[in-house]
Every structure is written in structure tokens, then in C-alpha cells.
Specification:
Number of strands: 9
Order of helices and strands: EEEHEHEEEEHEH
Strand content: 25-35%
Bound molecules: iron/sulfur cluster
Strand order of the largest sheet: 3-1-2-4-5-6-7-8-9
Mean pLDDT: 95
Shape: globular
Helix content: 10-25%
Distance between the termini: 25 Å
Structural class: alpha/beta
């Protein structure tokens, strides 16, 4: 059984796969408490893997996004394999503080203050900019580096930083801009 906050179908709003249709599995709870956290993830119901799979398979998209809260609290290789068995592409959005199954297809890591990284592979590093020293993230190995304004409040500052540091790319919360989940 895994504690699920919600399962919904939408477009990925942020980062590398922006605009891609995906089934989102939002797990309940997180091991960090960020002041800017904008997701309601605490509530949840315990679901069997079969029930989760049945819900996911109601939708036609190949991509599944494991999110939260911190999905790393709830998943294992068997769960990822179950999603692979129905031909899903399994990505995760994690704060990076948990060891993750090695059979995930895509790892998006958003490191947070006070959360030591334990992930060993990152495809996409996505940093929410809240005025911190960004250079501390540049030693982290990843395929793609995204910088994202904090709740849309400091976009100009983020754009300016990226123009000066072109290794980074802009990630916007486009789902909020177009008012979808
Ligand atoms: S790591 Fe993410 S989900 Fe957890 S408290 Fe911070 S912003 Fe919220």
C-alpha cells in the first residue's frame, strides 16, 4: 500500500518536458518543510498497487510523473517495474534526499535548503530561485540545468541571472499561467 494524495491527468508544466501530457501520481507527505511549498500534499489515502495502476491506465499518456510531497518516501523498484509493464515512461520529481530506484526513466531533482543530496543520477536539475547562492548547485552533475522563479515573484531576477550564467535555462510554472492543474 502507498499513500496517495491525488492522481490526475494534465500537461507537465515545468522543466524539460514542459507541455508533455502526463499522468501525475502525487504521493502524500514530505521529509522537508520548505517555506515556499505550494503543494497541498499532506492528505492522502492508502492505495494498493493494483488500484494505482488501474487509475493510471484510465489515461492515454505514456508519461507518468511521480511527485509529491516527496515520492521517494513511497516508491521502490517493483512499483516502477509495474508501471513499465504497461509501457509507461516513469519520471520522478524529487528533493533528492532519498535513495531512489535505479530503474526510473527520468529524474528531476529540485534540491532544497537543508536537504543533503542522496540521489546518484540526475537528468534534470531544477532549482527554485529564492535568492540563494546558485553557484553551490553547479558542481552537481546533471544533463540539464533549470532555474525557476519562486511562485512567479522574481522572474526578472531569474532571467537576468540566466543571461549572465548561460548554463542555466528558464523554467516557468506554465500550468499556473494557463490555469490547468
Ligand atoms: S521538498 Fe518540495 S514538497 Fe517538500 S516541503 Fe519542500 S517544496 Fe514542499
Amino acid at each position: 500500500m502507498r499513500k496517495i494524495n491525488e492522481i490526475f491527468y494534465s500537461l507537465q508544466g515545468e522543466g524539460y518536458y514542459t507541455g508533455t501530457p502526463a499522468v501525475f501520481i502525487r504521493f502524500s507527505g514530505c521529509n522537508l518543510k520548505c517555506s515556499f511549498c505550494d503543494t497541498q500534499h499532506e492528505n492522502g489515502v492508502m492505495m494498493t498497487d493494483e488500484a494505482i495502476l488501474a487509475e493510471v491506465c484510465k489515461y492515454p499518456a505514456k508519461m507518468v510523473v511521480l511527485t509529491g510531497g516527496e515520492p521517494g518516501l513511497w516508491i521502490d523498484e517493483a512499483f516502477v517495474e509495474l508501471l513499465h509493464s504497461v509501457d509507461k515512461y516513469v519520471s520522478i520529481e524529487t528533493n533528492g534526499t532519498r535513495h531512489l530506484p535505479v530503474n526510473l526513466d527520468w529524474v528531476t531533482c529540485s534540491p532544497k535548503k537543508g536537504g543533503a543530496l542522496k540521489v546518484t543520477h540526475i537528468d534534470e536539475l531544477k532549482v527554485v530561485y529564492e535568492g540563494q547562492d546558485i553557484s553551490m548547485y553547479e558542481g552537481i552533475s546533471a544533463l540539464h540545468y533549470f532555474l525557476q522563479p519562486c511562485s512567479g515573484k522574481n522572474t526578472a531576477e531569474v532571467v537576468s541571472y540566466i543571461l549572465e550564467h548561460p548554463r542555466w535555462r528558464l523554467s516557468l510554472q506554465t500550468h499556473k499561467l494557463i490555469d490547468i492543474p
